[in-house]
Fold this sequence. Notes:
Layout: H1 15-22, H2 29-49, H3 51-54, H4 57-62, H5 74-92, H6 96-117, H7 120-135, H8 150-172, H9 184-195, H10 208-232, H11 243-256, E1 272-275, E2 281-288, E3 291-295, E4 299-300, H12 305-319, E5 322-328, H13 330-340, E6 343-354, H14 366-377, E7 381-386, H15 392-404, E8 430-435, E9 450-458, E10 463-471, H16 479-494, E11 498-505, H17 507-513, H18 520-536, H19 538-546, E12 551-559, H20 565-576, E13 601-604, E14 610-613
Parallel strand pairs: 3-5, 10-11
Antiparallel strand pairs: 1-2, 2-3, 2-4, 5-12, 6-11, 6-12, 7-8, 8-9, 9-10, 13-14
Helix pairs in contact: 2-5, 5-6, 5-10, 6-7, 8-9, 8-10, 12-13, 14-16, 17-18
Amino acid sequence: MSVTVDGDKSGSVPIRVRQILRGPRPEKVPTFIGTACTLIGLIDIAAGVFPRFRASRMHHAAEVLPGTLGPLSAALSLSAGVLLLLLAHGLKRHKRRAWRAAVVLLPLGAAAQFAWRHSVLGALLSLALLTPLVRHRSEFNALPDPRSRWRALANFVVMGAGSIALGLVIVSAHPRRTIGSPSLADRLEHVLYGLLGIEGPVAYTRGVDWTVGYSLGALGMLTALTTIYLAFRPEHPAARLTDEDETRLRALLDQHGGRDSLGHFALRRDKGVVFSPSGKAAVCYRVVSGVMLASGDPIGDVEAWPGAIERFMDEAKAHSWTPAVMGCSETGGQVWTRETGLDALELGDEAVVDVADFSLTGRAMRNVRQMVKRIERNGYTTRVRRVRDLDDEELERVRRAAADWRGTDTERGFSMALGRIGAPGDGDAVIATAHKTDDTEGTDSPYGDLKAIIHFVPWGPDGMSLELMRRDRSADPGMNELLIVAALQASPDLGITRVSLNFAMFRAALARGEKIGAGPVLRIWRGLLVFLSRWFQIESLYKFNAKFRPRWEPRFVVYRKSGDLPRIGFAAMQAEGFVNLSLPRPFTRRRPTPGPRPCTHIVPAQTGDHEVRAA
């Protein structure tokens, strides 16, 4: 029984059939074409690599697909498959360059189907796949991603490694026609020579030498051509904060900086920015692996936030980036979800200490109190000052110590890290330092008596946010607790009434899961978090923050769909510096012991001491 539409004179045509004849909706065409290219590319590669696949029923049934040229040449089939795989991701992301390449490749595939194999059906299917590309070309209008010529070197490394791996499969795919028993070294040598178009040491019978040789040569040619193309195409640099942008952002922070503790981190130089049409609000972001990642709430007047958010979403759509926001407040999450239709998920809680309520007295603060007293008895002193009150010599010493005590090659942090100390315009930032004169070392230390540093950035006129914590590895345990307490005790003299410490991921689940009466699901979730804390220090961070009896402010991640969360999480880890996909630097000196980092994850260093790392 077919279902028809009321009032349709052609009621004999079922709705499902009409939908099939009408084709996919325009917004679904890029995903459909990209998936088709992926499947066809995999079939092409299998046809070019495996002789048994070329003789199988599956391949005979698939020969009508565009690009499957196995019977004519394994090399052509392999080349077509690799090219289609390279195009598939770009087509799914609506990229204009990928569309142009597909529009050229598909007619060539149709011509090959008809001229060399006389396959009318194969040529028609190629043109059928081309039809929605041309008809819905307006869907493929995404601008290029940020890129540099380092992409060419990365392509050479990745494509080269893939070609060598695939080449080893090709060389080993003909065991019955291989002369002798070549070793793995011989096969690897044959692959390397073959990629350069030179005959290698492995020999075959029945003309397989030509098939293997042309296939390896095709892989080498693709690696070379794609690398040359990437090396000579124009650069498209990532967005950076200009001096004019920084001036405008500082003006907004002067008026509205007290709203969000993460506001000052918008002044990182490696972020781009979009302003609302009125200029009264802005959203700062960084693009990482195709994710347009914002952090914290928009800067500026809440009434102007929708305009800045709309500009942000327009920019994401123009480049086909995945929009996401990390660590926004509850108010920010409400505005983001209301204006964009995105969804929000609670990510954790920010620890905020109200200075008026902080005290070392009482049983709850006994451990912190005892630790601070013990360190002070060991001869440590503290100083808490505005950055503008440090002279040039001491400021340079603090910068040098912070860099040398970092412990890793790259600076970590994005959402709660500024990445600099004492830059022009940052004079309101607060530096807390720990000092101890060590007679055994004399005065030869380049840092003098400096043993630990904590750097806070402004949070409006009466607040500050923890940005960086570094210490000398030879210092006594408990430096972080000592300096946080010193900063809190000195805050009234600096006009500070609230201090933002670290961000604790999944804090609510950890706190509720350990209470009496917690349900089985919550207990299982807490157990998983405790298990993951062995590597990510989730529980340790929560317990460290809890020492100072803060109030907890929830923070959220805003995302488009659940399927984007793994990608957003991976991009956030890249932005924070926990995942580094840059090329290795074998000649870079690495420090053996990790040092303290900015804000969020805590790694126990010694008893009673922690290192704070960016989340």
